[in-house]
Known about the structure:
By secondary structure, the protein is of the alpha/beta class. It folds into 2 domains: 7-161, Rossmann fold, CATH 3.40.50; 165-335, Dehydroquinate synthase-like, alpha domain (Up-down Bundle). The protein contains 13 helices and 11 strands. It has helices at 38-50, 69-82, 96-108, 122-128, 157-161, 165-182, 184-193, 199-216, 231-240, 245-264, 269-278, 291-300, 327-335; strands spanning 7-11, 28-33, 54-59, 89-94, 114-119, 136-138, 140-144, 152-156, 304-305, 308-316, 319-325. Strands 1-8-5-4-2-3 form a 6-stranded parallel β-sheet, with helices on both faces. A 3-stranded antiparallel β-sheet has the order 9-10-11. Strand 6 (136-138) and strand 7 (140-144) form a beta hairpin. The longest helix has 20 residues, at 245-264. The protein is globular, with a radius of gyration of 20 Å. The model has no long low-confidence stretch (mean pLDDT 93). Bound molecules: nicotinamide-adenine-dinucleotide. Nicotinamide-adenine-dinucleotide (NAD) binds next to helix 3, helix 4 and helix 6.
Amino acid sequence: xxxxxxxxxxxxxxxxxxxxxxxxxxxxxxxxxxxxxxxxxxxxxxxxxxxxxxxxxxxxxxxxxxxxxxxxxxxxxxxxxxxxxxxxxxxxxxxxxxxxxxxxxxxxxxxxxxxxxxxxxxxxxxxxxxxxxxxxxxxxxxxxxxxxxxxxxxxxxxxxxxxxxxxxxxxxxxxxxxxxxxxxxxxxxxxxxxxxxxxxxxxxxxxxxxxxxxxxxxxxxxxxxxxxxxxxxxxxxxxxxxxxxxxxxxxxxxxxxxxxxxxxxxxxxxxxxxxxxxxxxxxxxxxxxxxxxxxxxxxxxxxxxxxxxxxxxxxxxxxxxxxxxxxxxxxxxxxxxxxxx
Length: 341
Ligand SMILES: NC(=O)c1ccc[n+]([C@@H]2O[C@H](COP(=O)([O-])OP(=O)(O)OC[C@H]3O[C@@H](n4cnc5c(N)ncnc54)[C@H](O)[C@@H]3O)[C@@H](O)[C@H]2O)c1
């Protein structure tokens, strides 16, 4: 397991430079990618081949369909067929689903080989590629995985700027979360400029919030749980309402805002809801929602401990606290995002 934080490089056109860190004995690289990032991955693979490395390009299914034990096994077999050894490297080029799978595969193949990430979605850049959590879904989301850092994360702002608005929005949701738990100025920026906020600044600030927390608490025994702001209810509505991760976290942050007002004297619930709306993200659920199913999932959530569900609340922007939520609080938080009747 690699517990040393990676080198995170953020810049314009940085994928045109030296992508891999120097490493003695490296001869082979498996470039793992997903359909949306195939063009970038192919370009990188070609450059690595030109540079003298034996390179294989592996495209896995899109989105969550990649995060399965079956795809992990297919990928292990492919790495073995390519002859990757402990001196070699997995280069992950894609969004959060792709880096989660690639990190898991790299951390377990031959008991762990080097991983390098090039996140190509905003959500990947500000969140999934940072912090060393890797996972596949087995029954529950992210149920099987390991903590393991890549050696380098390369974030090319030019690639992020070219993203379609829907994908940009997803990432803005996690960027706002980073601001809410640790960077007042990032919240101000997103409030002022919305979806057109300067991505270099958004990514730099969000990555700083996350790396500072993770350096302090890699295995989530304390502060790292703050990164789950909006996720307790968010994860449940992601499953029940079929929202994307970023949208579900947006709704989850509105619900957590209500819980924060009720239990932590938070005074900026309305402001945060307006910022979320300004980013084009949902602030309530549409259609029929099976509230009982949401509650059941919240209760099953792996963040539950013996005394109840642990939920992150805000005392103020930039000041998160961890609370044990009782069923009444979850009900009230959910009511804040329930479909209009
Ligand atoms: N490990 C962590 O700490 C962590 C944190 C947050 C989220 N996650 C995980 O991240 C995943 C969500 O991340 P995501 O939203 O990036 O999902 P994703 O990887 O599914 O990517 C979203 C979509 O964007 C496409 N895409 C990728 N790069 C593109 C590009 N440059 N241009 C156009 N399309 C592109 C993909 O093909 C996909 O269809 C979830 O599985 C979630 O569990 C992990």
